[in-house]
Design goal:
The chain is an all-alpha fold. The protein has one domain (11-242). The protein is built from eleven helices and no strands. It has helices at 11-29, 31-38, 41-62, 74-82, 84-93, 96-110, 113-121, 123-145, 156-178, 185-188, 199-244. Helix 6 runs antiparallel to helix 8. It is globular, with a radius of gyration of 22 Å.
């Protein structure tokens, strides 16, 4: 459809989309899902990281303008786009000072004993857990990646936003690393031993996965948005200089 309109989706954007879909498939359809639901906390944590921390921002990168306008049927998209209350709600939820605390509440709330083990025992609750992780992450990244624009804009505030969110997650990862007793032993019991890990080692591996990914995302965001902000400043300066030297305008030099 986009090709008929003369627009070719960039290869990098296509890669992001299909990679996100593949990661969702790995998280939900591979043996990782079964291991996380019955035996290993680390497998369940890896599943959550794939869905909420990696696939979600890749989805936004893959659906950026104008692709997002063609993801839903027109009969469904138009009423949603014209809904004033829905647009105002989304505009409010995507604000960093709303999205970041909401993400922290989702992250820590689902890792309380009763909520975490309850989700593992109830398929509908487990599905809700996964969906909330994805939605919370999408809201965090929405204002950063700005998918309605064809090029991801820079902005040093974005580094602070993502760094703050990842730091909040790192504290949870450190708790898994440094606690000296298994948190969810009431559900997993000693089943980690069947996979060559003690329950405590399994929990520490889960915390290490969280910390490692948080560090990678923080470093990646710092590098990308620092460089992109500098590029945007150079482009703005070049456009200003070009405008000043257009015919009929007075140049400065």
């Amino acid at each position: 459809m986009l090709a008929r309109r003369g627009y070719r989706v960039p290869a990098a954007q296509q890669v992001c989309w299909y990679f996100a879909v593949a990661l969702i498939g790995v998280a939900l359809l591979s043996p990782l899902d079964g291991l996380g639901e019955t035996d290993l906390l680390s497998a369940h944590m890896a599943q959550h990281l794939l869905l909420g921390d990696i696939a979600a921002p890749l989805i936004l990168l893959g659906m950026r303008s104008p692709v997002y306008a063609f993801l839903l049927p027109k009969a469904l998209l138009v009423p949603l786009a014209r809904s004033g209350p829905l647009r105002r709600l989304l505009r409010r939820l995507r604000q960093p000072w709303v999205a970041a605390p909401l993400w922290v509440v989702i992250l820590y709330g689902w890792h309380l004993d009763f909520a975490y083990e309850g989700a593992l025992r109830s398929p509908p609750l487990h599905a809700l857990q996964h969906q909330s992780f994805v939605i919370g992450s999408l809201l965090v990244w929405l204002s950063v990646l700005e998918p309605t624009r064809r090029r991801v804009p820079g902005g040093l505030w974005k580094i602070a936003h993502i760094t703050g969110v990842r730091f909040a997650g790192m504290f949870l990862g450190m708790a898994f690393l440094f606690l000296r007793h298994p948190i969810y032993e009431g559900f997993y019991g000693r089943r980690a031993l069947e996979h060559g890990l003690s329950p405590l080692e399994d929990q520490q591996l889960a915390g290490g996965l969280m910390l490692g990914l948080d560090l990678v995302v923080m470093i990646g965001a710092l590098t990308f948005f620092f460089l992109r902000t500098a590029q945007d400043a150079d482009r703005a300066e070049a456009e200003e200089n070009l405008a000043q030297h257009q015919p009929g305008q007075v140049g400065l030099g």
